[in-house]
Design brief:
Length: 438
């Protein structure tokens, strides 16, 4: 039996010494299903080599999914913290002031008043306004006490900041106008003073003034600056002014800041300009004078945070994607080795009628299968790694299916791209020289 016939017999019986059975050529074309089986057989014949080759793809896909998922979760957390301040929110606080040539920081000029806040309700699109003052005070209930931020506000504050109730009710406009001694506690304060006992109906003292607890706010957690939004006690503005933060301590009708809620669907930038124009008019500022107040559109803040988080996520994902490049080079290496080992098989297939494009397709399929297997395992590992990081570090995790699909698609393209040169090299072998290869 001559060498070509003997080789043909071995190929017909299956794999031998790490060689894979040649995919049959039917009607002059390649049987794709049989080509896939042949590719899996070639990988199974060299398991350790296939695993080590796919490791680069595995690490790259896992790293990309983990970084994208954690980054998306971080973006969602930051946006949630900003939204917890209130949806469609505008905030005004005092500007800076110069004293003896020294320019003090923002908020040092006490020029915002409760009347400014009420006047802003005239601005089209503004649905709620709250003038606010705040001071740090010790609150006492029985034998318990707690140092917290006592905030004097209008009833509209709860609508402006989208604050819900856990128990009880908000104070009314009548109670605010009458300077009633009622208080709505944040969840942190209620827990510190009363524990598991219900706070509504209880009495607390602020600067020796008794207050009736009429409500407990639902938890909001930390704001983007890390401050606990639940560590607060909210009382009516005029109650705070007359009984807690008297006129002898601060300007009688002054406020520390003004919060405004813009109606849903309104143009936030346009509303902000209307507010700015009215404030300048009320403060009698000339056209060439700068604003003596600061105005912040919280939707712009949210957009800035989101853009920063998105850029950071993209940078991390790009760094992780370098592993895919390394994995692709590994795929190219293993396919070149496979072409060398199977040179006589390729020569026989070309000699009995296989077209060069069939050989090209065969090796491309093997490269893509190898990359896809590494990518599939990498997807599972990436999802698991994301959840593990979330539990250990306390970060939120958001698995994005489009990122998973993209990672799998990129792994397939990696196999296709880096497998093309070895496949082309196999397809261009000379059949006679290949059959003589030792």
């Amino acid at each position: 039996m001559n060498a070509p016939v003997a080789l043909s017999a071995r190929l017909a019986r299956g794999t031998e010494a790490g060689q894979t059975r040649a995919a049959p050529v039917a009607a002059g074309g390649l049987d794709l299903l049989e080509a896939l089986r042949s590719a899996l057989g070639a990988l199974a014949a060299n398991k350790l080599r296939a695993v080590l080759t796919g490791l680069g793809i595995f690490i790259g896909v896992a790293a990309v999914i983990a970084t994208v998922s954690v980054g998306a979760g971080a973006r969602q957390q930051v946006l949630g913290q900003i939204q917890s301040l209130g949806a469609n929110l505008l905030v005004i606080w005092p500007g800076s002031v110069n004293q003896a040539g020294v320019r003090l920081g923002a908020g040092q000029r006490p020029n915002l008043t409760w009347d400014d806040a009420q006047a802003l309700l005239e601005v089209p699109g503004i649905v709620a306004v709250s003038g606010n003052i705040r001071g740090q005070n010790q609150v006492v209930a029985g034998n318990a006490n707690w140092s917290t931020s006592v905030q004097g506000s209008d009833p509209d504050l709860f609508a402006v900041q989208d604050w819900a109730l856990e128990d009880g009710r908000f104070f009314t406009a009548e109670e605010a106008r009458g300077a009633r001694k009622v208080v709505v506690l944040g969840a942190t304060v209620a827990e510190a003073l009363f524990g598991d006992e219900g706070a509504v109906g209880q009495e607390i003292r602020v600067r020796s003034t008794p207050f009736e607890v009429i409500g407990v706010l639902a938890r909001k957690g930390q704001n983007p600056m890390g401050q606990d939004q639940d560590d607060v006690a909210v009382i009516p503005f005029w109650t705070a002014r007359r009984s807690v933060m008297g006129a002898n301590r601060v300007w009688a009708r002054g406020v520390n800041w003004i919060s405004l809620k813009v109606e849903d669907g309104a143009d936030m930038a346009e509303a902000a300009e209307e507010v700015r124009s009215l404030m300048r008019q009320r403060h009698r500022l000339a056209a060439n004078e700068p604003d003596d107040f600061n105005l912040r559109n919280m939707s712009d803040v949210a957009a800035t945070f989101d853009a920063s988080a998105k850029t950071l996520s993209m940078l991390l994902a790009s760094a992780a994607a370098v592993s895919l490049l390394v994995g692709g080079i590994g795929v190219m290496n293993i396919m070149l080795v496979s072409v060398t080992e199977r040179t006589r098989e390729i020569g026989l297939r070309l000699a009995i009628g296989a077209r060069r494009r069939d050989i090209l397709a065969q090796f491309l399929i093997e490269a893509v299968v190898l990359a896809l297997l590494g990518g599939a395992v990498g997807v599972a590992a990436g999802i698991g790694l994301s959840h593990a990081l979330g539990r250990v570090a306390g970060w939120p995790v958001l698995i994005q299916m489009d990122a998973v699909a993209l990672a799998v698609g990129v792994s397939a393209l990696t196999g296709l791209f880096f497998g093309f040169w070895p496949a082309r090299r196999a397809a261009r072998l000379d059949p006679i020289a290949a059959l003589r290869h030792d």
